[in-house]
Multidrug export protein MepA
Amino acid sequence: MNLSKDPVSKLFLRFLIPAITGTMVTALYAVADGIFVGQGIGGRGLAAINVGYPILTFIIAMALGLGMGSSTLISINSDNKEFKNSCFSQTIFVNIIFYIIMMIFVNVMGDKLFYLLGSNKDLLPMVSDYTNICLWFSIFFTFSIILSSIVRNDNSPNYAMKSMLIGAGINIVLDYVLIYHTNLGIKGAAYATGIGQVCSTLYLIRYFVKGKTFKLVFEKIDLKMLGKMFSIGFPSFILEFAVAFITILFNKEFFRYMGEVGVSAFSIVAYVFYIFRMLFNGLAQAIQPIISYNYGHHEFARIKKIFMLGHLVSLVISIGILIMIKFEGYMIVNMFNDNLELVEVANRGLLLYSSAMVFLGANFINISYLQSKERARAANFISINRSMVFVAGALFILPSQIGVDGVWLALPCSDFLTFLTTFFFKERKKKLINI
């Protein structure tokens, strides 16, 4: 596979299929968690996971930022073996340091942190059980994300995909066994998720042990390299961190307007929406190695082709998702729980929450494009506005005007405003699509 000479459409498919397969598998086994918890434990279990999930999301966001930043630098400097080894090693060491810091922070905060995230006394035991178990396994979550990103950029997208398939398969089987056939309850869901990630990480480690592409070197932390890595990966971090930020804000708003049933409904919608988000994430991952490599080799015409192709595919996928939600939304949310009130609330919420799907896909493509070209300032500007500024503003204004529907519409409003910002955004008097 030649990233600078093979037809762009052929390269796109070569990266798209394993990337989307991998991210969709990750999404589906997360959804399987939700279905097993919703049916086996109930709406309270869904609410408990949703309250504690921002902690895990923040950890995952850091891993995505590190993975995107390091893999992009490695891809751009693909001919420099010494640089690749150094970048790989710096990423591993920083990830371990971050994990230790997070473990200390969460343990020091204790139950106070869960209350800050929106828990109440009734949910606290479940929130604590699920989150603390997952936290111990989170080092494997992060390595799975980082290593798969590096493997994908090392022209091995199928290997990265297989690692996700392994983790997903084990997680789903263990979900069924530990939730339905033991007395572990929500702890079983946490153990199933954690063990799945352990297996995925071990499979990825095998790639680096058997191959000779990368070598772990022990050296001082290179702040300049880390700064560049974080700068490139920051939009990926923000896009994922936004999930934690949004979840906390939304949980508080739904508790305020609807109580526990609102939080449970939002949990169902968040699980379903996660599939869509990961689908676009896979699409963004597919274009990233191609753009980064060709940018490093000054093949600007090829970059523009892949950018436009990515947007076309994103548009088609978005329209398909909206049609599915319109006609099959009730059936989808009913898989999580059969409580009539909960299903009705979640069904309406899913339709409203997904209404700006076309803009969501376009935003993911635009941000990935900018990251891949090391245009960190523009990517960061767009990501921060989408993930925090616009969402917070919409949540402040819309619910006070139209009630609970305004809570559901806050994220679509943010994606629409982000798209407008991107459309008119210029850097150095160039439009976004200009090379």
Observations:
- Residues 426-435 have pLDDT under 50 and may be disordered.
- The longest helix spans residues 260-296.
- DSSP finds 15 helices and two strands in the chain.
